[in-house]
Design a protein that fits this description.
The complex is a heterodimer of chains A (116) and B (111). Chain A has 116 residues and is mainly β. Chain A is built from no helices and 11 strands. Classes of the chains: A mainly beta (116), B mainly beta (111).
């Protein structure tokens, strides 16, 4: 069964450094998402992406964050200058939604980011 | 009032019991209702999703949505130790829009 994959599984970085988290969504999906989960807290929406542009973003997704689909398969989340509070699990998700189907989002296994 | 409320548990039941997990919500615009299962430090795994009100059954799992009461439930019949995990209710206004998650209920099935 197709699944969303994410790399790396773990990333440790120093405060102020840039990180790029990578995702390969399910191949025929059209919508892509990033969520995060701080340890012990809820899964929170960050951003959604469709047709090569951001369709929705949360208050968390400030100027330090950016997303990109650099080719036909990858979807990336960049944090420009990491802060301690960016430490969390980051989940990528994708959805095949079209007007003819009613589908929902499928999540990857996550990247655990630790900012020191 | 929180947008989605879910009792965090923990909930511990013996193997074979029927488990009932519930969430309430406040946003009447929600149309899609999902249940995800999450094991420790893993990604949410989709269990079931329902569009609008009604029931949906898949094997030992039954999802119910009551939009008039803004209340959703997940029932697990003949629970197994392998069902032990955190169960997240989740909802969205459309299947393409952001998902709002509950805080998760930690479930433990005792052999």
């Amino acid at each position: 069964e197709p699944e969303v994959t994410q790399t790396p599984s773990h990333q440790v970085t120093q405060m102020g450094q840039e990180v790029i988290l990578r995702c390969v969504p399910i191949s025929n999906h059209l919508y892509f998402y990033w969520y995060r989960q701080i340890l012990g807290q809820k899964v929170e929406f960050l951003v959604s992406f469709y047709n090569n542009e951001i369709s929705e973003k949360s208050e968390i997704f400030d100027d330090q964050f950016s997303v990109e689909r650099p080719d036909g398969s990858n979807f990336t989340l960049k944090i420009r200058s990491t802060k301690l509070e960016d430490s969390a699990m980051y989940f990528c998700a994708s959805s095949p939604w079209t007007s003819r189907t009613k589908e929902t989002q499928y999540f990857g296994p996550g990247t655990r980011l630790l900012v020191l | 009032q929180k947008e989605v409320e879910q009792d965090p548990g923990p909930l511990s039941v013996p193997e074979g019991a029927i488990v009932s997990l519930n969430c309430t919500y406040s946003n009447s615009a929600f149309q899609y209702f999902m249940w995800y299962r999450q094991h420790s430090r893993k990604g949410p795994e989709l269990l079931m999703y329902t569009y609008s009100s009604g029931n949906k059954e898949d094997g030992r799992f039954t999802a119910q949505v009551d939009k008039s009461s803004k209340y959703i439930s997940l029932f697990i019949r003949d629970s197994q130790p392998s069902d032990s995990a955190t169960y997240l209710c989740a909802m969205s206004g459309s299947s393409a829009s952001k998902i709002i998650f509950g805080s998760g209920t930690r479930l433990s099935i005792r052999p």
